[in-house]
From TrEMBL:
The chain crosses the membrane at residues 22-41, 48-68, 88-106. This is Transmembrane protein 18. InterPro entries: TMEM18. Keywords: Membrane, Transmembrane, Transmembrane helix.
Length: 135
């Protein structure tokens, strides 16, 4: 089984009609990530802390998968989705976290490029003023 078909197999293997608790947990987790990304958008220090939190969340995914494999009845009513390969946790937990990390990194890159442009413009204006004074 190739990687794409394995991912599709995991997604199709979830019985969403009976897994209301799991669906609610995932929805609330996704909502938390999106809200935190939005709330920290203009606060660089807070966003750095949020970024670190997301990195720790990715690092903890394997441990979380192991714990959920042992305690799967807390989140699922019928099926044990947390296998040793970690496909379920990777698809439904790690990918959304990585997406939020990517959004934060892209925002930082945009902020850095804007600051670089402003610094360069200021430098060019100053050089132009100094050149005009000399003439």
């Amino acid at each position: 089984m190739d990687d794409v078909s394995a991912v599709l197999h995991v997604i199709e293997g979830v019985d969403w009609s009976s897994e209301h608790r799991l669906l609610l947990i995932l929805f609330l987790f996704y909502l938390f990530c999106v809200v935190c990304t939005i709330l920290t958008w203009q606060r660089m220090n807070l966003q750095a802390a949020y970024f670190c939190f997301l990195c720790v969340a990715i690092y903890a995914a394997e441990h979380l998968n192991r714990w959920l494999a042992a305690n799967w009845k807390l989140v699922s009513t019928k099926h044990q989705y947390f296998d040793s390969h970690g496909m379920f946790i990777s698809i439904f937990y790690s990918i959304p976290v990585l997406f939020n990390l990517l959004v934060v990194v892209l925002k930082w890159m945009r902020t850095a490029s804007t600051a670089l442009i402003q610094v360069k413009q200021h430098q060019l204006r100053r050089q132009h003023r100094e050149k005009c004074k000399k003439e």
